[in-house]
Design brief:
Elements (H helix, E strand, L loop, with lengths): L12 H10 L8 H17 L9 H39 L4 H18 L5 H9 L8
Amino acid sequence: MSEKTKFALYLSSERKAELERRYPEDGSHSQTEFVDHALAFYLDYLSAKNAGAFLPKAVSAVIEGRLGQFEEHMASLLYKLCVELDIVSTLNASAYEIDDDTLRRLRADSVRNVKQTNGRISFEQHARSSMEGEAGWRG
C-alpha cells in the first residue's frame, strides 16, 4: 500500500454530518477510507471522458453476467424451437407433395405475414382466416 499524506479538507457542516452518518454503508472502516473510495470513483469517472460510457466495474460485471445467462437461455430455447420446427417440417414435407412454385409462394406469404404481425403469429387466427377462405392475414 502506498504512503498516505495528510491534508486539510473543508466540508460544509451538512456534508460532514452526512459523511459521519453514512461512511459505513460502503464497508469503509473510517471516514478517510470512504473519502478515498469516493475520490477514486470520481477520478475514474473523469478519466472515462464520456459520462454515458462509465459504469463501475462491479455493475458492469453483473450486467455482463446476466446478459451471458440470458444469451445461454435464449440459445437453448431457440435450439429447442428449431428441433420442433424441423419435426413439423419433416412431417409436412413427407405428407404432401408440393411443387417449387407453391413453396416459393408459401415462403413469400409467410414473410409477409411475419412482417405484418411483427412476428406475433397466432395459429388460431391463421386457422380461422384459412377456414374463412381469406387471402390475407389479420394479426
